[in-house]
């Protein structure tokens, strides 16, 4: 690999890591070596790419623009290498942004088959219940629920998550079982990040729509905590089928108002706008589409 290409890969890694020392560790280099290579690169391009402080390394405006261009070049080079090999083998690092609970319950259990198929590929799961900025955080593909505000992003629909209401047998024995959506006003409600911005839940049955105000007694900012709180008997929760499948199967949770439908949520794989998609990102997206289609 040429010195310039190596420097570009290192530059992209420092930018994503936000740290010379972290990038040095990932690239198996000393921190002084990383600093020297980046300084040489800055001299060659004639601009400061990073602002350095004792606490952080951040991209300058010129650095951010340079990164967007460099990553397209690196992605296209990876695509060329992949095509020339002609073996379908994937290499490098695939960074996946995904909600914590969805990663634990649905993505990780299906990783073995994909990783066995591509033994030279490393996968970095960036788990968070907030929506990552794909460009800033270096995410190659993000799995997202609901509407996609960025219409310029490249997206593939993976499936639909049916939403339902659940509660523990212990809670229902103590507080009673709601017979209609209107009964929810008398119950303790658990609100997670997916519903934190909503003012109500909407239900449909026989062509009729009913909305009820959501006044959560317990609010949590991690989706997995919604299911855990419901199992603990803290109230009624709304979650996707993927978020409580095991608990429904073993009786720790019971579905409520099963004859009423809640608005389903679409699941998409999203790739950043303006960046060439990595072969590994495309392959992973196709793999997940097949997995969720079969579920």
UniProtKB/TrEMBL annotation:
State the name under which the record lists this protein.
Transcriptional regulator
Query: What InterPro entries does the entry give?
Result: LysR-type_TF_proteobact-type, LysR_HTH_N, LysR_subst-bd, WH-like_DNA-bd_sf, WH_DNA-bd_sf
Query: Signal peptide location in the record?
Result: none
Please name the PANTHER family in this protein's record. Answer: HTH-TYPE TRANSCRIPTIONAL ACTIVATOR TTDR-RELATED (PTHR30537:SF5), HTH-TYPE TRANSCRIPTIONAL REGULATOR (PTHR30537)
Q: Which family does it belong to?
A: Belongs to the LysR transcriptional regulatory family.
Q: Which domain of life is it from?
A: Bacteria
Q: Which GO terms describe its molecular function?
A: DNA binding; DNA-binding transcription factor activity
Stored PROSITE patterns: HTH_LYSR
